[in-house]
Design a protein that fits this description.
Length: 59
């Protein structure tokens, strides 16, 4: 897996030169959330579909 810094640099370099700071920040936010989700899945820190349905129903 590439470093977080390299992943951020790669993502930003692929963006249009007219990208706004909000676009860049959103892209970095998404990268962060995906990385954290993968790490959680590797740790087994997940929720089953049935557990998620029950949680949604209680809202």
């Amino acid at each position: 897996m590439e470093s977080l810094k390299q992943e951020a640099v790669n993502a930003i370099s692929k963006m249009n030169d007219a990208a706004e700071i909000d676009d860049i920040m959103y892209r970095l936010y998404v990268i962060d959330k995906v990385r954290k989700g993968r790490e959680a899945a590797e740790r087994g820190d997940t929720v089953s579909t049935e557990e998620l349905r029950k949680e949604i129903e209680t809202w």
